[in-house]
């Protein structure tokens, strides 16, 4: 099971990288309105570095927790900006949590989302309403935990996660930035979606698609 789980997470990071690269120009354009116009480039470089390091692993020998640990180090090495430590901490939190459950069950997937949220919040000290990526990650994690409590299946859980993340990201356009470079703009940050929240949605969507594909493959093999 660990081999399949490790391979699934490797596929997940590949899918995230492809999705971020496709959104790179849009993310940088969003960042240009309130930041340094490099968010898309930074995120793309970070996930490319992650995949380069993961390519060196043998899925047959790797545990899911190790996939996230490697991703944390690679992302931090590639991205020196504030985003680097935030996602590195998110991946490390997920790695530690996976040591207690390497199954990638729906409950485990919910745990991953919440631990990533916790890592970002732990490192950045932010809250919902600060106009940051947490405005997508916090509601996404809440939706994940609520779905786990209600024993929703994976499809229902990820539908709730994505809806919450998208609503959260869109809500940042009506916020005044309280953290990061955008905070220097004050009221001028109004009317712009936070690029970090937008990229969080892209990451979560790629995660959902990966787990959905994995689930479909398992069901097909049983037919």
TrEMBL record:
Which Pfam families does this chain map to? Answer: Dak2 (PF02734)
EC number(s) reported in the record = 2.7.1.-
* Top-level EC class: transferase
What keywords were assigned to this record?
Answer: Kinase, Transferase
Against PROSITE patterns, the record matches this protein to:
DHAL
Q: Report TM segments.
A: none
Write out the GO MF terms.
glycerone kinase activity
Q: Where is the DhaL domain?
A: 7-209
Give the protein's recorded name. Answer: Dihydroxyacetone kinase-like protein
Q: Which organism is it from?
A: Rhizobium lusitanum
